[in-house]
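Worked example 3. Consider a protein that binds WT7.
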Amino acid sequence: MSHYHIKHLEEYYQVYRKSVREPENFWEEIAEEHFLWRKKWDKVLSWDFTKPEVKWFEGAQLNITENCIDRHLSTRGDKTAILFEPNDPNEPAEHITYRQLYERVNQFANVLKEQGIQRGDRVCIYVPMIPELAISILACARIGAIHSVVFAGFSSKALATRINDSECKLVVTADGSYRGAKTIDLKGIVDEALQNCPSVKSVLVVKRTNEDVHMEAGRDHWLEPLLDKASKEGKAEIMNAEDPLFILYTSGSTGRPKGMVHTSAGYMVYTAYTFKNTFQYREHDIFWCTADIGWITGHSYIVYGPLANGATTVMFEGVPSYPDFGRFWEIVQKHKVTQFYTAPTAIRALAKQGVELVDKYDLSSLKVLGSVGEPINEEAWHWYNDTIGKGKSPIVDTWWQTETGGIMITPIPFVTPTKPTYATLPFIGVQPALMDDNGQEIKGNQVDGKLCIKFPWPSMARTIWGDHQRYKDTYFSAFENKYFTGDGALRDEVGYYRITGRVDDVIIVSGHNLGTAPIEDAINEHPAVSESAIVGFPHDVKGNALYGYVTLKDTGESRNHENLRKEINQLITDRIGPIAKLDKIQFTQGLPKTRSGKIMRRILRKIASNDTSNLGDTSTLLNPEVVQEIMDNVL
Ligand code: WT7
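Given these inputs, the predicted complex is written out as structure tokens:
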């Protein structure tokens, strides 16, 4: 019998050892006993990190939606699959049962087919957190179309880049979206994006805000009447294990966003298995992950992982601050949420509010608390543990990435003793390594280094859409035969891991992964700007905020700096989205550079963080004199 549900620490160690010594036997047992296959695999794993090429369950056939929906119908047909909580607390919640989900996904899938979407086609989903978001994802998966969800907070430019990169044929969107007291003109953003997207043939529009929107004849269709006419039955396309399931873009330290490609079988097995154990999920639990489905956290732990386990998964449309900062706790009470999974930035924002907003509500249903997206600081950890968990709900600080598909380092609640700010132990099957700057693995405990993974796990991304070379260069070239995460980590005396943060030019702001290059590119588009450099600096709610150093073309010209700052932030909003706006913009005479012309971000980072006691040797710089000037004018 496989160890699908791990219940105590000895069992964890025993299963972990097996997963490392006999990974193929281990994953084969998990896959065999807990999923529905149309055909079993010929080979569990083949891999070569030098190419890199990784295949799990090769030869197997399946459809992930049969695992997430159909197979539950006989036992859980009337159970709530998706529990939708709207933005407006006065609008009733919607309980979508597994039977209803089956019907709605089939209807949607049939509409996609009518629109000419076939297996392998890419469909862009730019939809707010309403049920149609989850349903459209599953509908794509049902017919073998590859979904590419773009977070509905991204700008039209960012949306267009992503649509074009994977040449999506169809876009699903909504007339508008709610965000607290605000309404956002989503369809307008799509219309703007589509001016430059030749591959898009049709747009399906969900009615949500009932705003008047432009409908382009022959291209745009209201979804509802099409769904009403569509059949509630439909066969799932039989997919191969390694067929792409979805593309999800993540920002890199340089250049265009990277379209991470996840495939069917391995992703399903790993997200389901991590969901079960990391949240100690049981049949009658109500699981709530507050992330947006536009991020990997939502893909894996709102949609696929929970549904593959036949769970009830909460989808919340709104924001933590509307109508007030008690909203999360009101929802926990109302739906008797048992597992609550959120981000440190939300925890810090909520911890700033009066405790009466927590005490007003009955949180006794909670059993497990989760954190994801960035390192959780000690203070936030204790507030979460004491004020929300009342010391009885363990915190699972889960480390993972868009690229890893599922949770990689995490405590298993009630199994692994937690330690503040530590993600603790590798999940079953995960083989981390800490590396030094000479490319050697650092063995033993009480050490720190760059975090790599030295053996494949089932849900790892297989490539970057359209650019396998970039996949290799980014993840498999820094260290021989290892996947490099881009993070630094330390391992304590008992082997617990603590993630210390990015070691590359990616900055995590409010849990969002932002590359410096695309932001700098946006700034440099301003006609007055000659050069710019972005660094992160500590921020008590966002974790990091962005600090921009900007050199103007004509330093003699006396331009209004306040106006320039506004224009720069507007450019960033247009090109990327409001999440990438800079908190501080300092105008400088120059940027510190190495002799080879590389901007020394390390120095800029220290200055922005007010940590200038040890700037290191600046004498080898091309232009050491700018450092003092920058320090004198720091904001
Ligand atoms: C980066 C990945 C996968 C979830 C959402 C983010 C940072 C993520 C933790 C954590 C410390 C964390 C890392 C990672 N990160 N979780 N528990 N502790 N850091 O996905 O946008 O792909 O970002 O988020 O730096 O590399 P992502």
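Take a moment to read the result before moving on. The first strand starts at residue 43 and ends at 48. Residues 250, 295-297, 372-375, 397-402, 423, 485-487, 499, 502, 508, 513 surround WT7 (CB under 6 Å).
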